[in-house]
Automatic annotation (TrEMBL):
Domain Sulfatase N-terminal: 41-452
A molecular function (GO) term: hydrolase activity
PANTHER family listed in its UniProt record: ARYLSULFATASE FAMILY MEMBER (PTHR42693), BLL2667 PROTEIN (PTHR42693:SF43)
EC nos: 3.1.6.-
Protein family (similarity comment): Belongs to the sulfatase family.
Keyword check for Hydrolase: yes
CDD domains, A to Z: PAS_like
InterPro entries according to UniProt: Alkaline_phosphatase_core_sf (IPR017850), Sulfatase (IPR050738), Sulfatase_N (IPR000917)
Alphabetically ordered keywords of this record: Hydrolase
Keyword 4Fe-4S: no
The protein, known as: Arylsulfatase
Length: 755
């Protein structure tokens, strides 16, 4: 027999055996398996959300965080570590090793600004850490908050190109938005939405669920391929608002903060100096503008603020307990010894609770003040399923002790964050503190350094951006080595800063004002950690040198154009290709839960919602359309043979009910909102074109209806109305729901009137 010609090249390379006519005349060959060195460590990256520099016990707090403190005892604490001052940008830096403007994430992934720096997605010119690790032989898994996909693309129709499984992770479980209710989260498993595995009444809490899933993923991987390393990215919702925790944790902190934020800051500051987190002589920054001395608050203000801080502490404590469960599992399965664990917060403590605190984040986003008396009346709901709480500025500044300002700002209160690195097998020193200046872009090059990997110059045929960070591995064995970081810029919502060679220049920007009017400050960080002594007037030449360096860095890393437009304003503007860029929307019962970023833009617009049903009996009832949760939203439903519409304005409910019972059989059940003023209107109900009810709706939210999305034919997750129990799924025949929306806020009647 004659032999065949050599086998052609294939996707796995050129076949190096011999192929004959039969197997007896052929020589098999197998390509070498890609294998990492036998002792390659696992990697666990844990991201906390909105946790201030001093909030962990090992960074100065008396909040109980024994699991994180244990990581610090067996690892290293970095006291001069910085982030971008906002969640999506920090995550983009963390997973790429590049600056956030350069990769397209100037602020939140919710928006596309129309400029390269603000696409709201990570460019494919920046391969992610999980992409590189997966291709190098790691199993990769992500659990928790993602917030790196364009939010209008997080529906069941995708596109999925920026979801975790498309950016290097093989497994995913968590939520895709900026925040979620910890008792009623919007959850996704791989590429589809799922319901929480149990209810709050059955003991559900998101943090516990995320650790359960992390353990499941690692257990599956370890059981089948114990020889392969894994990368686990665990990004908690905690301690981003809403601050919610199991009742026993809430009770644990009763009375713990009665002394107030001024005393708390002083205690943490002294503790930080005593423990070496801050150099001796570091000053405590003055109160931020708007922070009132605690002793000058009214009794009700003190009572409310303390309860809000208790909920935050309870949530952080509970999260620590869950981290402890994960660490115990790794220890029990023999994976802890050779696992690099990195724990950080994504930015400083949040100012989004306002001056007096909040029970409703939608109020903050819409610029609507909350009534103190009403909040105090609801004080026992704080931390539970019935409130979406966030603490006031005073406690946020205490979280950022000893620094100025908060999340979103480029002063140290926004960008200086706790970082812990633990690696039992690999760290030459443990229990120590490192003071070298570093930034979140430095995590990827550090891991590449430790794992013996390199960033690919070309990935999937696309030339790659260079890594912008520097490895921190040199600090492991050299406590006093000078930092290898040369410079780092910061920019967010027009706030700007530049660090270089121990100096920092920073400008606070007032939204809506000229950038040219911003006042730059100058601090010598090597001697003034807390930015208390502004040297701008004493050292004008140094200041100008720093400002010039900022503009150089801004040009190098695509920071321009400066943009100070806020979240609420942008929430109304759909990006090109968004499913919201229509005026008519048709939905069918049984469709997947629709995330809030992709729902019809009915906020402060004339609109109509028509449900086409066929009821066999007067007992057929249930939800037709539901959007929102306990904080805000709307719902259209049938109950007691009547059509009901409820609009939840930050807890105040405006209801329109049909004046007569509904007919049996096919019907078009319609709600119509007609504007009569800037943020007000009238709600009308119709049954097959016949008017059956009308009520004034004196207040509607101008910009933002909340984080939780829309359901058709039922009310999932946090209930939209107290008028029914559970999902209250519609029991009759149900064809579809059609939304018709005015093209803009000015249109009062964008369609033919029913009457």
């Amino acid at each position: 027999m004659t032999t065949a010609s050599p086998h052609p090249p294939s996707a796995s390379g050129i076949f190096q055996g011999r192929i004959g006519t039969t197997f007896e005349e052929s020589t098999p060959w197998w390509p070498d398996e890609q294998a990492l060195p036998e002792d390659t460590p696992n990697v666990v990256v844990i991201v906390l959300d909105d946790v201030g520099f001093s909030d962990l016990g090992c960074f100065g707090s008396d909040i109980d965080t024994p699991a994180m403190d244990a990581l610090a005892t067996d690892g290293l604490r970095y006291a001069n570590f910085h982030t971008t001052t906002l969640c999506s940008p920090t995550r983009a830096c963390l997973l790429t090793g590049r600056n956030h403007h350069s990769v397209g994430m100037r602020m939140l992934s919710n928006f596309d600004t129309g400029f390269p720096s603000g696409r709201g997605r990570i460019t494919t010119a920046a391969a992610t850490l999980p992409e590189v690790l997966r291709d190098s032989g790691f199993n990769t898994m992500a659990v928790g908050k993602w917030h790196l996909a364009p939010m209008e693309q997080t529906t069941a129709s995708g596109p999925y190109t920026q979801w975790p499984l498309s950016r290097g992770f093989e497994r995913y479980y968590g939520f895709l938005e900026a925040e979620t209710d910890s008792f009623y989260p919007e959850l996704f498993y791989d590429n589809h939405a799922v319901a929480p595995p149990k209810s709050p009444e059955e003991g559900y809490h998101l943090s516990e669920d995320l650790v359960d899933r992390s353990i499941e993923f690692v257990r599956d991987q370890t059981s089948v391929t114990p020889d392969k390393p894994f990368f686990l990215y665990l990004a908690f919702g905690a301690a981003h608002a809403p601050h919610q925790a199991p009742q026993e944790y809430l009770e644990k902190y009763r009375g713990r903060f009665d002394h107030g934020w001024d005393a708390e800051r002083a205690t943490r500051h002294a503790r930080q100096i005593e423990r070496g987190i801050l150099p001796p002589g570091t000053e405590l920054a003055p109160r931020n503008p708007g922070v009132v001395p605690f002793d000058e608050l009214s009794d009700d203000e003190r009572k409310l603020s303390v309860r809000l801080q208790e909920a935050y502490a309870a949530m952080l404590d509970h999260t620590d307990h869950e981290i402890g469960r994960l660490m115990e599992f790794l220890e029990r399965t023999g994976r802890m010894e050779n696992t690099i664990t990195i724990l950080l917060s994504d930015n400083g403590a949040s100012q989004e609770g306002g001056q007096k605190g909040s029970l409703n984040p939608t109020a903050f986003q819409n610029g609507v003040p909350e009534d103190l008396e009403e909040m105090v009346a609801r004080i026992d709901e704080i931390g539970t399923t019935r409130a979406h709480a966030n603490y006031p500025w005073g406690w946020a500044q205490a979280g950022n002790t000893p620094f100025k300002r908060y999340k979103q700002n480029t002063h140290e209160g926004g960008v200086r964050c706790p970082l812990i690195v633990q690696w039992p097998r690999g760290l030459p020193h443990t229990g120590e503190i490192r003071q070298q200046f570093h930034h979140v872009t430095d995590i990827v090059p550090t891991l590449f350094d430790l794992l013996g990997l390199q960033a690919p110059p070309v990935y999937n045929g696309i030339p790659q951006l260079p890594i912008h960070g520097v490895s921190m591995a040199y600090t492991f064995g050299s406590p006093t080595a000078p930092t290898r970081k040369e410079a780092q810029y910061f920019e967010m919502f027009g706030h700007r800063a530049i660090w270089h060679d121990g100096w920092k220049a920073v400008a606070f920007h007032q939204r809506g004002t000229s950038f040219d009017a911003d006042q730059w400050e100058l601090y010598h960080h090597d001697t003034d950690y807390s930015e208390c002594n502004d040297l701008a007037k004493e050292r004008p030449e140094q200041l100008q040198k720093m400002i010039s360096r900022f503009w150089v860095e801004a040009g190098r890393y695509d920071v321009l154009p400066l943009d100070d437009q806020g979240f609420a304003y942008r929430a109304k503007i759909p990006r090109p290709g968004s499913p919201r860029r229509r005026t008519t929307f048709t939905y069918y019962p049984g469709m997947a839960h629709l995330p809030g970023a992709a729902v019809p833009p009915v906020m402060n617009r004339a609109h109509r919602i028509s449900a086409f049903v066929d009821r066999a009996a007067a007992s057929d009832e249930g939800v037709l359309v539901s959007l929102g949760n306990i904080s805000s939203g709307y719902v259209l439903y049938v109950k007691d043979n009547r059509l009901v519409y409820e609009y939840n304005f930050l807890g105040t409910r405006y209801t329109v009910t049909s004046a007569e019972e509904l007919p049996i059989g096919p019907a078009e059940l319609t709600f119509e909102f007609v504007k009569t003023g800037d943020v007000q209107g009238v709600g009308h109900l119709y049954v097959s074109g016949k008017p059956v009810g009308s009520e004034a709706i004196p207040r509607v939210l101008p910009h933002f209806l909340g984080w939780q999305g829309l359901d058709i034919g039922r009310d999932t997750l946090s209930p939209s109305s107290p008028g029914y129990d559970g999902e209250f799924a519609f029991t009759g025949g149900f064809e579809k729901v059609v939304f018709t929306v005015a093209p803009d806020e000015e249109g009062n009647e964008p369609f033919e009137r029913i009457d």
